[in-house]
Amino acid sequence: MEGCEKLEEKNIRLTEMEAVCLNSEQVFDGGNECEDEGDCSIMDQDDEISETHSQKERPPPTVGLEFESFDEAYDFYNVFAKEQGFGIRVSNSWFRSKRKERYRAKLSCSSAGFKKKSEANNPRPETRTGCPAMIVIKLVDSKRWRIVEVEIQHNHPVSPDVKRFYKSHKKMILAAKKAQQLEPVMEVHTIKLYRTAAVDVVDNGYSDVDEREARRNHVNSKHLELKEGDAHAVYNYFCRMKLTNPNFFYLMDLDNVGRLRNVFWADARSRAAYSYFYDTIRIDTTCLASKFEIPLISFVGVNHHGQSILLGCGFLGHDSVEYFIWVFRALLSCMLGRPPQVIITDQSKALQTAVSVVFPGARHCYCLWYIMQRVPEKLGGLNGFEAIKTQLNKAVYDSLKISEFETFWGDMIGRHGLGDNKWLQALYEDRQKWVPVYLKDISLAGMIPIEENKGLTAFFDGYVHKHTSFKEFVDKYDLVLQRKYHKEATGDLESRNSNFELKSRCKFELQLSQVYTKEIFKKFLSEVEGMYSCFNTRQVNVNGPIITYVVKERVEVEGRDKEVRNYEVLYETTQVDIRCICSLFNFKGYLCRHALNVLTYNGVEEIPSQYILPRWCKDFKRRYPLDYDTVDDIDANDPLQWSNHLYKRVIQVVEQGAQSQQHYKAALQGLEELLHKFSIVEADSLF
Prior knowledge:
Helix content: 40-55%
Structural class: alpha+beta
Radius of gyration: 31 Å
Shape: elongated
Distance between the termini: 53 Å
């Protein structure tokens, strides 16, 4: 437990500011300027190193960047100025008169403005040029300082190669000299990145094996390999998102020498979507497993249209247990400690261990589609591969009972002499995590394709390839999300305003056409139409209120004529509960054609409410608004709780405002009035 606590403290430091190194190697900078008078030895010793490393990627000052103190903001701009070759000074400060507390300041290039005219006989020559380069910083909530205005351009030449002393750099040189007397100077260039404070995550029993892995020497620590331009792109994206998206969340993980190992982030929409659809999620690690240039991990859910939605993203420096645990805990912190109920991943021992540590109460499944995609790679070289593949598909997709799967699998292994095949052995050992016949008691919301000819599309499919860089991905990220959001908004509009064309006289079809979203209704409609391929519904057993039926269906079989299959359906008469052996309701969230036939056989004209999942309803978000705490439950000193509480309330305004033009105008007018009040309060605070 002690090792786990150390790892937790190392991995997720829940502070308001976090020093993050976006370089993939150490950066040394002994200084490239010296004082006009005094000892210049430090510059001489480190000048060669400085020329090599001083130009490593340090992003310029950016609007929205925040700091814990005025001094930290000053030091940041001073270091930037030294690298560029100019000095700085505090040209203006604003104070609150009653408390004499500085709340705003302007840091300018030392050449800003002009000196007052001197009446001396030999006045010093004018050295200032009225340079406009500067930053303006402002004290914001929770005592942080934020850059609110930036001007990068100078009206005079600047160069880091010019060996000139500036007063603002004196303290930096003296500090470096002092450190050099104590030990060799090693300066790691870091970027201060603000991120939302997180919630403590309780440790769930980290195993001794994982603990030993966590204690690896930092020399062997894996980190993100960032190329030129990548660090700047990631940095700018996070700064921009924090400025324009207040509920944007991110965490970063550093190794012992300050290199970036892992990143996790989620925007406001993803966090809200998680609150609605966190029951079942898929963790996509395809980019990691396939050794893409970007080690992307995506957390994906399904919305009320059956569309994939992004719940969070991350970059991992390595696909090991320790790194997976870090990013899973980051997700849990972001979502305020609310774990998913079902987690779907690729088959991986590292993922299995990490999920069991961070989400011990969740049901962990392996994605069937990922596994079946590897069949040609793993078995393609065997004699009789096509026959093996056919028997494997039959065992996986056609088994309605566990005994059937065991029989089909055993026949395949025995007939083709596959008893020593390590991959098939591993699959069989994990069969309860991926074979559909073992997953019938889990609600999967359609996230695992259970039909042989059905595929799975990655959330970033078409936008990410093996050689996509960090910079390219960040540039495309917003575009991908906007297209997905537009698709969801279109689905909402079509579901509210469309009158669905009915294909039959079935009362179930009419009932759910008024309830389901358009896309889910289309999927359910295939089951209504499939009722006509079922026949000979007959009662085979009675046990009190529970009646067992057998429904026959003609099923198309690939490469063969249609065959007839028998489906057992249990029907409980008092509560109108119904269960089919195909378990389509658990796999996809709506009743199958076999159950519909039995309901019709018993004269039931409406589908019972327990079989109409709210998550598929067109008014789901309005009927089930996000849970929110009362004002009394909110910490008056915690901006994160303010943001979460306000966002949950505003979501209700958005959902109601989109229902009609009248609602839209009322919501817009109310928001504009509120923003006007904020501007008045902001103006008053300046005086």
